[in-house]
Task: inverse folding
C-alpha cells in the first residue's frame, strides 16, 4: 500500500531518518508526500499550509512544513524540517 501511494515506486529506498528536506516530493499530491516524509522521519509531525500562508513562528525540530498549491493540491515548495 505504501509503495503505491509513493508514486508507484517499487524500488523504494530504505527510510532516511536523518533527512531534513524532501525535494523529491515537489509536484506530488499532498497525501503521498506526507506519507513519504513520515516514512523517512516517523517522529515528526507533517503540517500542510497553502502557498502564501505563514506557519507558526520559530524552528521546531519535530515539524516538517509542506506548502501546497491550493488549486491543484500538489506540493509547491520543498518541504523542510523546522
Result:
Amino acid at each position: 500500500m505504501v509503495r503505491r501511494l509513493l508514486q508507484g515506486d517499487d524500488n523504494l529506498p530504505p527510510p532516511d531518518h536523518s533527512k531534513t528536506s524532501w525535494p523529491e516530493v515537489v509536484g506530488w499530491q499532498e497525501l503521498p508526500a506526507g506519507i513519504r516524509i513520515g516514512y523517512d522521519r516517523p517522529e515528526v509531525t507533517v503540517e500542510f499550509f497553502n502557498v502564501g500562508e505563514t506557519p507558526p513562528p520559530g524552528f521546531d525540530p519535530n515539524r516538517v512544513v509542506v506548502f501546497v498549491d491550493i488549486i491543484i493540491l500538489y506540493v509547491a515548495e520543498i518541504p523542510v524540517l523546522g
